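User: Can you predict the 3D structure for this chain?
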Amino acid sequence: MANPIKPNNWDDLTVRITSSIAMVAIGAVGVVAGGIWFQMMVVFVAAIMIWELWKMIAPHRDTAAALLAAATTAILSAMLTDAGSPWFLFLVVPISGALVLKKLRFTFLMYALMTLVASYALVQFRDDFGALWIIWLLLVVIASDVLGYFAGRTFGGPKFWPAISPKKTWSGTAAGWIGAGGIGMIFAISTDAGMILVPLSMLLSFAGQMGDIAESAIKRRTGIKDSSTLIPGHGGVLDRFDALLGVAFVMFIAVNIMNLSGVAF
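Assistant: Here is the predicted structure, written as structure tokens:
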């Protein structure tokens, strides 16, 4: 009897790379342009992520998903345009969605809140520190993801958290830390930021991996494979940017702690 044909671990690589190139090109234009262009791009992506989050939990409630996405666009745009906007506006979408949901209310509340805060943080980080440091954050995420992907597919080995993310291995996780540390080293050498960037980049790699794990946990609980099918080879927007959410959220906390401590980034 012939052996059954096994799926090739690399079958999705071409589509994945093509989609990645397109996303990098669009993202690079937004990052370099900055200002209202970067803001609009981030707000648009945030609205889609909220829509996908809702659809994962309540897939048949399309009207509510659209309303929450629209509210995300309006609130984030207002907060980014008017620095005096009250911080409680961050809670409007998470609390509204949680009150309407019949299941996973706390999950939606916390993940939606992280999405809004992280999206806001990315725009503020670009405005305060410039395109170079947004590029650093993006390269940390990309290096962590790419090295983790190839190391995991090549070496395999023990699973990192099999109950939540059965494909993620320790080899891929560690490779992601190393890749992010390498990016930190490059930026430490080429700027005056110092070698603190190396461990900080590795910490952000871990934050990104936890962002990925958090979304994986939601998908496991809702029994779906991808947050949507918007991006060929990657699934949904949330599938692609879950790590960046974790990175931006942790960086937002780190920058504010440094500011309160009188330490300049």
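The chain has one domain: 29-260. Confidence is low (pLDDT under 50) at residues 1-9.
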